[in-house]
What we know:
mainly alpha; MetI-like fold; 2 domains; flat
Amino acid sequence: MAQAERPPSGLSLTDLAGSPARRRKESLVARAFFGIAAVSIVISLLIVVSLIGKAFTFLGQVDLASLWSEGWFPRRSLFDVRTVVAGTLVVTLIAMLVATPLGLGAAIYLSEYAKPRLRRTLKPILEILAGIPSIVLGVFALNFLNPEVVDRFLCGDASFFNLGGAGLGVGVLVTPLVASIAEDSMRAVPMSLREGAFGLGARKRSTTLNVVFPAAISGIVAALIVGASRAIGETMVVALAGGATGGALFSIDHCQQGQTMTGAIAALAIGGDQVKGSVAAVNSLFFVGLLLFLMTLALNIAGGRFVRRVRQKY
């Protein structure tokens, strides 16, 4: 029988395949990781199915006209979707108006201007700030941002609870997240692009804004998408600073109190808004949760397509 062809090194193909024991261990590890991934997918699907089922139950229990009424008042069986969606969008818009310039400014400084020693000090601090409990920022927004910033500088006659303070608090919460992801994207841009720009006589500012920033645009957009998703899903800050635990009229005024989707869910889930005589109140939690899921899903799909379209490989 012909012998197996041997490479010039003297090793056979069987030798290069490794020991059977090692292959069995690697196969076991691969199956374990596959099982873990499959379990996470199954759990996600079960959550979505549960939301869909309860949401349709809710729609069958209420008059559809109550979904387009004067406000979100579960005690009166008024489930105005516009109120919670508008409140969520107002808070998210204010939060991103705060987080975008601050987060990208911090990312540009850490990536392009900070000395290596200073960067090694500031980057961990920035990442630690991203882990501040949201309830702490909620108290900060309620006791400082609402009276000292929103009421004094932005509105002049704001209510004690208001969407503006909630948006500012969420913006502070999201800023470190945006800055960290954007800084990682800018640091991933090859140094050869910077050196080429310098070789052509470009200044530091021009290189940063006209070369590095466009090259990292896919990662920067991803950072903003993650920040917006985090802002949409924030609960404690808006629950404390935004008020309206019992309900709210439809409004897009950032100087007044309002209700967000997460705030409405929290009020129902913790029992702070128990509704007597309204059988649909609890199921409305799942309906709002499904809307929140669809919003974040659409945002991530649109953002993912944009990132894939503008992504540059080096």
